[in-house]
Design brief:
alpha+beta; eight-stranded antiparallel sheet
């Protein structure tokens, strides 16, 4: 089951719940859409998805973030950074977060910034690789967070990681024009 919450000026508040997947084989039965009155349109736009961390979730969430960014008319270069980030960060949760339970992916646009967050219930901090560190060319893992960190910095943004007893959150924040 996926839960999606979207706030957007065109549809000020829409809440979608149920097994919803416009790009894949998940059964869409149970879709509920509840728009708020147009007068309550917020200055920011926000979307959030929750899902079980499985391999099938990676392309699903990437497709949802892509559709959202297209709807927000985010520039291709900025969208590319965030799409790579969501793919890598969700894959990291699937591969490395040992804690059971749902993960949360959210995107927020406002104040000249676009923020993507991937959170899980694993309490430990992921290892943030040093950009100057030597990488073993035969390693199959360990580059995703480094790539996200470098692309985010190149875009003028920042990557932050927080963890507490309730879980870990990785945030990518980039400026938008």
């Amino acid at each position: 089951m996926y839960t999606t919450t979207v706030t957007h000026p065109a549809t000020p508040m829409a809440v979608l719940t149920g097994a919803v997947d416009p790009v894949g084989p998940v059964d869409p039965v149970g879709l509920v859409v509840t728009p708020a009155p147009a007068a309550e349109a917020p200055a920011r736009v926000f979307a959030r998805w929750t899902a079980e961390p499985t391999a099938a979730t990676v392309p699903l969430l990437r497709a949802r973030v892509r559709a959202l960014l297209e709807g927000w008319e985010v520039a291709d270069d900025t969208a590319g950074v965030l799409l790579l980030a969501v793919s890598e960060l969700v894959a990291n949760v699937v591969l490395h977060a040992a804690a059971p339970g749902r993960m949360r992916v959210s995107a927020r646009l406002g104040g000249g910034w676009l923020q993507l967050e991937v959170a899980d219930r694993a309490p430990g901090l992921p290892r943030l690789p040093d950009p100057a560190a030597e990488v073993d060319p035969d390693d199959e893992h360990g580059r995703g967070l480094l790539i996200v960190r470098l692309l985010t910095a190149e875009a003028g943004g920042q990557l932050t990681v927080t963890a507490d007893r309730f879980g870990t959150a990785v945030r990518v924040r980039v400026p938008v024009a």
